Amino acid sequence: MSEKRFNNHIAHRYDELCSLDDPYEESYHDRIANEVIEIVNNESIDINRILELGSGTGPTTWRLVKAMECKGRQMEMIGFDISAEMLKINKRKIHHNKLQGQNIAYVIGSGTHLPFRSNSFSLILCVATLHHIPNPVQVIYEMARILIPDGKVYLDEHLDNILCKLLRNFSKLFGYYKRIVMSPHEHQFEGFKREMIASIFRRHFVMKHVFFRSLFGTSFVWLKNNELKRILFKLDTIVEKAILITCWFPKICLVLRKK
User: Which of 38, 92, 118, 192 has its CA 20 to 30 A from that of 150?
Assistant: First the structure.
């Protein structure tokens, strides 16, 4: 089964399989939306066109649209994904949350061949997407091509380290990674080495900010106590400042500027 057919097949169960309604996940995507808005507000260049690469069922999309509407920001946003079924769910979430979404368009396609003109976006948002794609280097080249000079990339990705391997195997025992077991590209879900992340972006981008995240939330995703998960999220935001232990963190967030 191809990745496209697979994603269309599981689209209506994706949020459940990935626990996207989990309080920790909800807090995490709220945070991403707020950070992107901060980038928009603080950049010297005029950010007026955003591409969300691999927007999927929209856990980040509707939050970002809501944040923009609350702050009165007017900009064009494109939700891009290989799965038409996931984009349908994404669009429904905009309406379900009573957002106008007048400046949102949805485009179906492959990240390795983005159907957009060169120098046509000022910001690209790529959350937990790159590890799904067999050829991430080609995706990075395409991102650099369609960004304007000094355009930005907000990237959130999984890392591959000892703790991640332990957590992944542990979580499989609880059935949390059902989707990964089913995936036709299961090996892609193992994430990236830290040095690989740096090397594949170095040719086209300059790193502005690097954050390591989700030590406790990812470790205890199987917990049933929602209030405890909210506490873990707050604890994560504190522990992230401890530079000496970031090598254990399972997620990395990069803000990059096109050279």
Answer: 192
Distance of CA 100 to the CA centre of its chain: 23
User: Bridge partners of 157?
Assistant: 252
Burial call 50-62: b when 16+ CB within 10 Å, e when fewer: bbbbbbbbbbbbb
Strands 76-81 and 147-158: unpaired
CATH topology of domain 3-258: Rossmann fold (3.40.50)
> Taking a C-beta distance cutoff of 8 angstroms, is the pair 255, 153 a contact?
yes
- Give the residues across from 206 on adjacent strands: 257
What is the pTM (predicted TM-score) of this model?
0.84
Q: pLDDT, tens digit, for every residue of 126-170?
A: 998 888 888 889 999 999 999 999 999 999 987 776 666 666 666
CA 225 to centroid of chain Cα atoms:
25
Residues 6+ apart with CB under 8 A from 182: 6, 10
Q: CA-to-CA distance for 89 and 227, rounded, in angstroms?
A: 28
Q: What is the pLDDT of residues 199-253, one digit of tens each?
A: 889 889 998 888 777 665 555 555 566 676 677 767 767 766 665 555 667 778 8
